[in-house]
Amino acid sequence: MRFSLLLGTLLVLAKTFAQTSPLEIKKLSGNFYVYTTYNDFEGTPFPSNSMYLVTDSGVVMIDTPWDESQTLPLLDSIEKRHHLPVKICIVTHFHDDRTAGLNVLKKQGIKTYSSLLSFQKGKEDGSELAEFQFTKDTTFTFGGVKFETFYPGEGHTPDNIVVWFPKSKILYGGCFVKSIEAKGLGNVADANITNWPIAIKKTIKKFKSPRFVIPGHQNWLGKNALMHTLYLLEISYNEK
Prior knowledge:
Layout: H1 2-19, E1 23-29, E2 32-41, E3 44-55, E4 58-62, H2 71-82, E5 86-90, H3 96-99, H4 102-107, E6 111-115, H5 116-125, E7 132-134, E8 139-142, E9 145-150, E10 162-165, E11 170-174, H6 196-206, E12 212-215, H7 225-238
Parallel strand pairs: 4-5, 5-6, 6-7, 11-12
Antiparallel strand pairs: 1-2, 2-3, 3-4, 8-9, 9-10, 10-11
């Protein structure tokens, strides 16, 4: 009985550890990968999704791990897997689940970018800051791949942007977009609940029929994350 109890406990612990691994990397499509890191949220390990793209010229990261200590292991894992270094990183708003590794990236010689508004909000908040800023929606070309940033307006935060990869039809929404798994809006300390639905509708109108929509947290496989975010916002409005 004691051996069975011990074995059962070990299996539960092993399963729990596997579910909350500090770094998970999964292929999305082609040369796109979603990486997930974990941090404590209300006493429970909670997942944070970010993304990277492998090109012939190096790797493009969108957002950082949730805390600084996870950044070097991520860089090592990417280089070991793809034999290419990370060259640039773009962050999508000023919260630490998007920016916590920026100082590490800068020390590694990686170019880091954010909107000017994210830079300003991060400076006020004491968050880590990107080295370079853009003042309007911007198209980047790196390693032969074009992608664009889009500011839909205030939502999860005053500065949240999304990143669109037109050829692959991948929309990286970050925390502006809620997972189809989400039951609520999560952290709304800096949110504009009134404008968020307007901003989501602008995003839906601008980026037609994306193949993938990557939210900032939880399950990222569902294609209806934008509509689900609208649904959660409607519930929040009706509960007022």
